[in-house]
Write a structure and sequence with these properties.
Elements: H1 2-7, E1 13-14, H2 22-47, H3 50-57, H4 76-92, E2 95-96, H5 97-114, H6 133-142, H7 153-157
Parallel strand pairs: 1-2
Helix pairs in contact: 2-4, 2-5
Bound molecules: zinc ion (2 copies).
């Protein structure tokens, strides 16, 4: 649907890799992940308000011990809210269609990894700025912390990071 929109001139999706310079493809990829993480953090945190939680987000929290299937388990209104980000972003940020595909793929794989229930990579550097299953598992167990999707900086900045996480 989104790619069809580009034919109609509604979205800013383009097909020439050199249209804005090759570097722009990488830049736009990183930029959209940062924006999506920000959007996800704040909408997710908002969905944890008791009234909204019941309507929008309870489905995702049925599993205290998440599995990869949990990454696809969203109540329809929440799925719509997250899809809305993608619909809006392709209308305001020019994206090559392969970059757009990469964003969809990254989002899907990252979400599955976040719900594995075990840590896929052992992190020898103690570089904890990326969210993984260990980080997101705490969200499913404690509810009121770890709202991010890809990166931990919003949680760190706004005090919703578990103080024991980095120990
Ligand atoms: Zn949640
Ligand atoms: Zn989850």
């Amino acid at each position: 649907m989104i790619l069809e929109g580009s034919n109609l001139g509604i979205t800013l999706i383009y097909s020439d890799l050199h249209q804005y310079g090759l570097w722009y493809n990488l830049l736009s990829f990183v930029l959209v992940l940062l924006l999506q993480d920000t959007y996800f953090y704040f909408t997710h945190r908002y969905l944890h308000k008791p009234k909204l939680f019941k309507l929008f987000h309870r489905g995702h929290h049925r599993s205290v011990q998440p599995t990869p299937w949990t990454s696809f388990a969203f109540d329809p209104p929440e799925a719509l809210l997250q899809a809305l980000f993608l619909v809006v972003i392709v209308c305001i940020v020019p994206l090559h269609y392969l970059v757009f595909m990469m964003i969809l793929l990254t989002m899907t794989i990252w979400s599955i990894v976040n719900h594995l229930g075990f840590e896929l990579f052992q992190n020898p550097l103690k570089f904890n700025w990326f969210i993984g299953s260990k980080h997101h598992l705490i969200h499913h167990q404690k509810y009121n912390m770890h709202y991010g999707l890809y990166f931990t900086f919003w949680d760190r900045l706004l005090g919703t990071q578990d103080i024991d996480y980095d120990k």
